[in-house]
UniProtKB/TrEMBL annotation:
It comes from Aquamicrobium zhengzhouense. This is DUF2849 domain-containing protein.
């Protein structure tokens, strides 16, 4: 299982390619490739977005299902999905804390 990730050029935000070819801010919204043909389709979409200066650092990454949710296999990608490790009040983990408190 793979998803396509990148960083949005305008603000550096980690993003994942969704099924409608938009860039989602959560991993759970990403289109999942279960075969090589879908991986190639995602890679082509990523290259097109890179050429249009929408994103940088485009990469297919391995993911797995963990309790029904997508989870990156590599630690680096788990950190990118959650936000910076130096401050829990910034990035995606801060948004999660606000949602839980609401």
């Amino acid at each position: 299982m793979k998803v396509l990730t990148a960083n949005r050029l305008t603000n550096g935000e980690a993003v994942w390619l969704a099924g409608d070819h938009s860039w989602a801010v959560t991993l759970q919204a990403a289109e999942v490739a279960l075969d090589e043909a879908t991986e190639e389709k995602l890679a082509r979409a990523g290259t097109a977005a890179l050429l249009k200066n929408e994103v940088v650092d485009v990469a297919l990454i391995d993911v797995e299902l963990d309790s029904g949710a997508l989870r990156p296999v590599r630690l680096r990608e788990r950190i990118r999905a959650a936000g910076p490790t130096n401050r829990r009040d910034l990035g995606k983990q801060a948004e999660l804390q606000i949602a839980v408190a609401a």
